[in-house]
Amino acid sequence: MSQPPKKKSTLKIPSFTNNHFHSQHNLQKPKMAPVVDQASLDALSSQVDSCLAITSQLATTLGDIYKNPSSTFTAATTSTSTLDAVALSRDASNLAKAQATKISLLIINEPFTPSAITTVVRELAAGPVPAIAAAVQACDPALYTNVFRKEMAWRCQRLLKEIVELVSKIPKNGQVVAEKDRKGFSKQKGSLASTGLLWSAADDVVKLANIGVAGYFIQKINTWRDTLQDVLEELKEWSEQEPDAETDRSEAFSDDDDDDDIDDAQKLVDDLMNSQKTIPEDDPDGIRPRVESTLRRLRLTLHLYQAISKRRLSKLLQVLPSDTAADSDIPKRLDDASVILDRLPDNFSDLATQFYDLDNEGIDSGMSQCFADSSAAGESFSKNWQDETDEFSTWVEKFHAEMTKE
């Protein structure tokens, strides 16, 4: 039987010539990074070095202001005297953050473009970097207080140092930052740790600018008050502890027969763990009345801190800083009062330690110092910012009487 004729396939098989093969092969080759000309790299290197030198020098200057916030600088008395220091610090920090972000992206993403990086670094060195320093120099203690200027100097110096850290990481070899060196805050996209630190430093400057002088002092006094509250609670808890009756008996009737107990290792451990002294039951030195007196005055001091924040500091927004504040004594009043308000928590903490040690002389001197400082702190805010007496002035008089009475 004859077979039916086979149908010819209509499928066309392409012919692969050598040229076609090489063409397909070339498409699969990895892309090579574009060659960067040496002139662009040299320009980038020069700009980076210049930015680092300027920023480092200004950071040192701000460090000097931080150490001595009452110091004045010639540059600050002329070109920066009319600047709004707070607003300038905020704007410059935001701009520095934005430009630093650009730099971070440019040095971790292909292709590496030295000309673009050079432009951003130049703008950073010419704009926000000197503006950040100028803001601190323009922060005149006669308008903003030494306390606020010191804090601004510290935060702005930290920001400049973080700028130095980031700029110093800009590659000068024409290649982006290696993947292994991108240990930043965003693992998915790749980033630099220095970028996150710079953002944090910039945000801290902006936060300070946003709350201003009044907000910063309120923040400080709340922190001091929290510390005083901790001291109060710890001292109160200690004062309520009862003396160990077993310990009192062993001390009162100790003799040579107790040698076996001394040799007991477990007893030594127990004694060590319970070594804090308590007020003796008979209280021969009159410790307890002094503890109660201290606790009462410590509570009054806590009320004072709260009242200062509400009755005085909250109203600073209306009077400080202002163009007419140059002849005002308000900044000096705040600086002087801050010295006392700052040391009171430490002094009360030291006094509590004297109680824990049952140190009679230390207790007496500590009480005198703490009560006198508390009274002085109240006097610092007796009059309002218009140098007039008011309802709070009357409260301060009563507070003073309570702190000084026997």
Structure description:
Helix content is 67%, strand content 0%. It is mostly helical. It has 2 domains: 38-211, A middle domain of Talin 1 (Up-down Bundle); 267-404. It starts with 17 loop residues before the first helix and ends with a helix.
Under the CATH scheme, the architecture of the largest domain is: Up-down Bundle
Distance between the termini: 136 Å
The helix-strand sequence is HHHHHHHHHHHHHHHH
Number of helices: 16
How many distinct domains? Answer: 2
The structure class reads mainly alpha
How much strand?
under 5%
Portion of residues in helices? 55-70%
Q: Note poorly predicted spans.
A: 6-18, 20-28, 74-78, 246-255
The CATH topology label of the largest domain is A middle domain of Talin 1
SS elements, strand count: 0
The radius of gyration computed from the alpha-carbon positions, rounded to a whole number of angstroms, is 35 Å
> According to CATH, what is the class of the largest domain?
Mainly Alpha
Shape summary? elongated
Describe the biggest sheet?
Answer: none
Descriptive terms for the model:
single chain; 406 residues; mainly alpha; A middle domain of Talin 1; 16 helices; 67% helix
